[in-house]
């Protein structure tokens, strides 16, 4: 009987060890994979903003639960990409915003469960745009961010959307949903760069003198678009106007759509804070050994450690 109990104890210990392997830090393949899958699910759950890119795992804590279930509490550093969340693209296929694009950085605290699948239980992300003087320090001629309420921004959006609607992309007009980003740079005159979201309306282009403000989306699943536009006021020279929109069908997702075995939408929040004051306060050190991990990108901002 004693021998049987001893063997049972050994089996239980072995089973526990298999179910909850000892992690070796932020570069551990299990941790990195969990962070990558978690970010897929976070981006899928979000309805606004731009897709996050995993820059590194900053910290990790492991918690063993019943039935071979493990919880990982992850702190991951993220960078904003140029892909809007309506595109549903996988973050690995998206380009991050570099110094000249008004980069946005942040941190996500994520709890994931690992059993058969990796599932995000909850998440909280905080993001901030890099302050203009930090960018100006390394790139004096880069565009500067503008308020989305700026009248020149509204004009640039109006003109570029009007140009898009004159092109043969759709039988119906598209209307503005919201402006997402804006910046300005001096070229031969002031150049305004805008990004905005549009949606197809029920107003056919065959109608004359259509007031877009009166046009409504034909349905909740009407195609939406993510647009970039520019308006350069050349003064005595010719004014330049450019627009490019990517349209996404709600019923027919992109081939690059994020796939996840988790059918439940994780609960979480994304807090958008103003650009930080410099110098930034020191960050709390990771609690886990061999953390933080190695960054995937370095923006080379001399005054900021991100």
TrEMBL record:
<dbReference type="GO" id="GO:0004869">
    <property type="term" value="F:cysteine-type endopeptidase inhibitor activity"/>
</dbReference>
<keyword id="KW-0325">Glycoprotein</keyword>
<dbReference type="InterPro" id="IPR025764">
    <property type="entry name" value="Cystatin_Fetuin_B"/>
</dbReference>
<dbReference type="Pfam" id="PF00031">
    <property type="entry name" value="Cystatin"/>
</dbReference>
<dbReference type="InterPro" id="IPR046350">
    <property type="entry name" value="Cystatin_sf"/>
</dbReference>
<feature type="domain" description="Cystatin fetuin-B-type">
    <location>
        <begin position="137"/>
        <end position="246"/>
    </location>
</feature>
<dbReference type="InterPro" id="IPR000010">
    <property type="entry name" value="Cystatin_dom"/>
</dbReference>
<keyword id="KW-1015">Disulfide bond</keyword>
<dbReference type="InterPro" id="IPR050735">
    <property type="entry name" value="Kininogen_Fetuin_HRG"/>
</dbReference>
<protein>
    <recommendedName>
        <fullName>Cystatin fetuin-B-type domain-containing protein</fullName>
    </recommendedName>
</protein>
<dbReference type="GO" id="GO:0005576">
    <property type="term" value="C:extracellular region"/>
</dbReference>
<keyword id="KW-0732">Signal</keyword>
<feature type="signal peptide">
    <location>
        <begin position="1"/>
        <end position="19"/>
    </location>
</feature>
């Amino acid at each position: 009987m004693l021998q049987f109990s001893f063997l049972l104890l050994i089996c239980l210990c072995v089973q526990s060890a298999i179910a909850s392997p000892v992690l070796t830090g932020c570069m551990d393949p299990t941790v990195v994979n969990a962070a990558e899958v978690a970010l897929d699910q976070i981006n899928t759950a979000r309805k606004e903003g731009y897709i996050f890119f995993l820059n590194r795992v900053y910290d990790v804590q492991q918690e063993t639960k019943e039935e071979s279930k493990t919880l990982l509490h992850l702190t991951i550093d993220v960078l904003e990409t140029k892909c809007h969340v309506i595109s549903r693209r996988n973050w690995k296929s998206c380009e991050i915003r570099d110094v000249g694009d008004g980069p946005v950085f942040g941190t996500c605290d994520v709890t994931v469960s690992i059993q058969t699948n990796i599932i995000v239980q909850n998440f909280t992300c905080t993001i901030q745009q890099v302050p203009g003087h930090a960018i100006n320090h390394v790139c004096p001629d880069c565009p500067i961010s503008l308020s989305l309420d700026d009248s020149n921004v509204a004009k640039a959006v109006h003109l570029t959307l009007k140009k898009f609607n004159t092109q043969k992309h759709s039988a119906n007009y598209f209307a503005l949903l919201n402006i997402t980003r804006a910046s300005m740079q001096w070229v031969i005159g002031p150049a305004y760069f805008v990004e905005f979201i549009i949606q197809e309306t029920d107003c056919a282009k065959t109608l004359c003198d259509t007031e877009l403000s009166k046009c409504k989306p034909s349905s909740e699943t009407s195609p939406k678009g993510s647009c970039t536009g520019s308006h350069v006021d050349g003064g005595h020279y010719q004014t330049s106007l450019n627009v490019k929109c990517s349209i996404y069908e709600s019923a027919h997702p992109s081939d690059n759509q994020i796939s996840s075995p988790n059918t439940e939408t994780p609960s979480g929040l994304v807090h958008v804070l103003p650009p930080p004051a410099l110098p930034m306060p020191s960050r709390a050190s990771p609690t886990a050994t061999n953390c933080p991990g190695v960054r995937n990108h370095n923006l080379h901002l001399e005054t900021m450690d991100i």
